[in-house]
Design brief:
Order of helices and strands: HHEEEEEEE
Radius of gyration: 29 Å
Distance between the termini: 127 Å
CATH topology of one domain: Immunoglobulin-like
CATH superfamily of one domain: Immunoglobulins
CATH class of one domain: Mainly Beta
Shape: rod-shaped
Length: about 150
């Protein structure tokens, strides 16, 4: 009986301690923490740009470490700004359309401390299954007229 009570008390204590620890981490203000060094590979997640893609939209995921607050994050496609996120202290994302047969997606951002990140991906749409490539235009051989003997 004593062991059972001790086990229950220990379980309740661990649960309360875990909740307090989790609560303490979630209350940290990203603006109060020192800014860590950041890299594009650490912060940005873009879909892979394999030989061709079947998707019509791409989701750009942004995962800054604690303390890294981004003043602005820009996403462009076809040279036009399609998303702008400002004052980002924690994870965020933007879903953008992939239009046409080829789309160049660029992401760039700056932390409040002046660190810059950027990434570029080029997405090429796959041809639908069963579609045939357009035949190449060939120049017909010219017809020769004259140049022979009659007779």
């Amino acid at each position: 009986m004593r062991r059972r009570a001790l086990f229950i008390a220990l379980g309740v204590g661990l649960a309360a301690g875990g909740a307090a620890l989790a609560q303490g981490q979630s209350n940290q203000d990203a603006y109060q923490l020192p800014e860590p060094s950041v890299s594009s590979a650490q912060v940005l997640r873009l879909p892979r740009d394999s030989s061709c893609v079947h998707i019509t939209r791409a989701t750009v995921r942004f995962l800054p470490p604690p303390g890294a607050v981004f003043g602005v994050l820009r996403v462009t496609a076809h040279g036009r700004e399609v998303a702008r996120l400002t004052g980002i202290p924690r994870a965020a994302s933007a879903t953008i359309p992939l239009t046409g047969s080829r789309t160049t997606v660029r992401v760039s951002g700056t932390t409040l401390g002046g660190q810059e990140i950027s990434a570029t991906r080029v997405y090429r749409r796959c041809r639908p299954a069963g579609s045939k490539p357009k035949p190449k235009r060939t120049t017909p051989t010219p017809i020769q007229v004259g140049g022979g003997d009659d007779g």
